[in-house]
Amino acid sequence: MDTHLTDETLNEYLDGVLAAKQQAELTAHLARCPACAARLEALRALFARLEALPAASLNRDLAPAVLQALSPTQPGAPPGVHPPRRLLPRLVLGVQLVGAMLLSILTWPFIEPQLNRWGNLPLPAPGLGDLAARAQAAWAAWLDPLHTLEMALTTALAWPREIVLPFDSRWLDLAGLAPSPRDAALALAGAAALWLAGHALLLRHPLVRLLRRRP
Amino acid sequence: MLTPSRDGRPPAEDEPSDQALVERLGHGDPEAFGPLVQRYQASVYNVCYRLLGERVAAEDLAQETFIRAYQRLHHYDPQRPFGPWIRRIAANLCLNHLEARRPATLALDDERDAPLAAPATHDPAAAQVRAEEAAAVRAAILSLPPHYRAVIELRHFQDLSYAEIAATLNLPVSDVKSHLFRARKLLARLLDPPG
Fold first, then answer.
1. Second label for B4, Cα 20 to 30 Å away, from A144, A210, B31, B119?
2. Same domain, A100 and A173
3. Has residue A151 been placed in a domain?
4. Is A30 among the domain residues?
């Protein structure tokens, strides 16, 4: 090897990444080439200066702050090795979905004739109407005790019926809206279903989560 | 003041090993992370300090390194030593930090090299020489572009191979070699300017 060694070769030589045979050849070259040997020594001196850099002292213990940041009570705390199970959000999501389904079933008897009126749209699977009717019957049966309680309160306390049952349709009559009870129930149930489904699904969509993420 | 160390403080005989602490973490005992932080905080801080050159920023990034390590413990191989793993995380965090804040001011300040842990000496003149030498080396490293700084840190202070540096920085080995060789050339020029 007659030519001088490249900088890259000298670096690799000092880093000890060359094959044993090549390393030996370079050692032989360096022994007979003062120019390359001088460049190698300069590089070795640089290595030594880096190696000799003293460590800086850390003036405080980081452990308390780190553990505090990792505390599960901290908002946005990292999940750690065992990510905490997020049961509550899943439970809320389940309740909301069930609620939305129930409301949809309850409102179906009102929606079905409307759809028929609007153009004989094909109806969903047979039996859904029956299911909705049964659900509505159950709902009405569940409301009966409430009506009984309302009457008892109205009688016993001599309160106006509007106070005991503030959402009575007569309030709407007073406001001049005068919707039929069926339309009012439909609007209320539809809005509730939309809100429940929207809150449960839309706000949990990854895109929405991304938008809500802190910068 | 915590004892500076390049490799981290090894556990005493009556202390649990790194692997035992990681195992406790795996069984849901977050308190086991405290001893690991105390064992490696000085070496992690030094990685950050060499790369950032600012004490407060280095402390913040060192703290962030441990939080990040905790979040990524499932990536840690308990068969390997903990120190190199967390120091690699620190180097990557610092590199990302440097890249995010480019172009950064590289002006040196007195605070940067003030309380260094130089070996105890009774010779003020020798201590002064050592402090000046350390300040010069640190300033030279900090004048490098972020990726050059990172490869110098990983090669010379963490003793990683080219392949390990490539894996840590997500770079081809050829880039690691060229960054490293150019960084050394720049350092040599800065520390020993041609007359």
1. B31
2. yes
3. yes
4. yes
Does residue B21 carry a pLDDT above 80? yes
pLDDT at A158 over 60: yes
Is pLDDT above 60 for B170? yes
Backbone angles phi, psi at A58, to 5 degrees: -90, 125
In sequence order, what are the residues at sequence separation of 6 or more whose Cβ sits closer than 8 angstroms to the Cβ of residue A184? A169, A172
Partner-chain contact A58 B177, CB within 8 Å: no
In whole angstroms, give the CA distance from residue B44 to residue B63: 9
Interacting residues of B156 by C-beta distance below 8 A, sequence separation 6+: A47, A50, A51
Instruction: For residue A1, give how far its alpha carbon lies from the nearest alpha carbon of chain B (Å).
Output: 22
Find chain A residues with C-beta within 8 A of B2's C-beta: 57-61
| Residues of A in Cβ contact (< 8 Å) with B117 | 54-57
Looking at per-residue confidence, does A99 or A126 come out higher?
A99
Instruction: Give tens-digit pLDDT for A2-53.
Output: 689 999 999 999 999 999 999 999 999 999 999 999 999 999 999 999 999 9
Q: Residue A193 falls within a domain, yes or no? A: yes
The Cα angle at residue B34 between residues B30 and B38, in degrees rounded to 5: 160
- Residues A34, A133, single domain; the answer is no
Task: Mark yes or no for CB contact A54/B38 under 8 Å.
Answer: no
Annotated domain spans of chain B: 1-105, 121-195
Question: What is the complex's ipTM, to 2 decimals?
Answer: 0.82
Residues A122 and A36 in one domain: no
Distance CA A57, CA A158 (A): 80
Q: Given pLDDT bands bounded at 50, 70 and 90, which one contains residue B65? A: very high
Is the same domain home to A42 and A132? no
Q: Which two tokens stand for residue A66?
A: 């780190």
Q: Do B191 and A7 touch (CB under 8 A)?
A: no
Tell me which of B9, B40, B71 to substitute to probe the interface with A (most A C-beta atoms closer than 10 Å).
B71
Asked if residue A137 is part of any domain, the answer here is: yes
A7 contact residues in B (CB cutoff 8 A)? 181, 185
Mean pLDDT of A162-169: 51
What's the rounded mean pLDDT across residues B120-148? 89
The boundaries of the domain holding residue A99 are 87-212
Instruction: Assess if CATH 1.10.10.10 describes domain B121-195.
Output: yes
Interface of A with B (CB under 8 A): 7-8, 11-12, 15, 17, 42-43, 46-47, 49-63, 65-67, 69-71, 78-82
- Provide the shortest C-alpha distance from residue A188 to chain B (in Å): 46
Contacts (Cβ under 8 Å, ≥6 apart) of A55: B4, B5, B6, B42, B43, B46, B116, B117
Q: Do B33 and A12 touch (CB under 8 A)?
A: no
Asked if residue A96 and residue A186 are part of one domain, the reply reads: yes
What is the average pLDDT across B27-43? Answer: 91
| One domain, residues A126 and A205 | yes
